[in-house]
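Why does residue order matter? Because the sequence determines the fold. Keep that principle in mind as you read this record.
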Amino acid sequence: MRSGGNQQRFETYRARWITNDPQSFAAVNRMLLDMAVDAELGDIACPTLSIGCDHDVMRPPAMVQELTKLIPGARYANADSGHFMHAQTPELFAKMVVPFLRET
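Structure:
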């Protein structure tokens, strides 16, 4: 996790996930592994901001950059955060997303 994040807030968020039924949690993650949406990204017609996070081992910035290229007119931004940016560094998330929403 990003060092400037709120560790307690993240741990609370994380606890909601790890207290799920293990079989259901595993099934959801298997389903997500099999999802392939790359071909549909070109159909997105609204303004799009993709954020790659430096400490995201599940979806590293290079992967997010490549997916962003598939979305017409999408903008890429990089953040010093982890995979669950909205929970790990919500202030940084808001700082990046709110201006984008205001200008669109």
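The mean pLDDT is 88.
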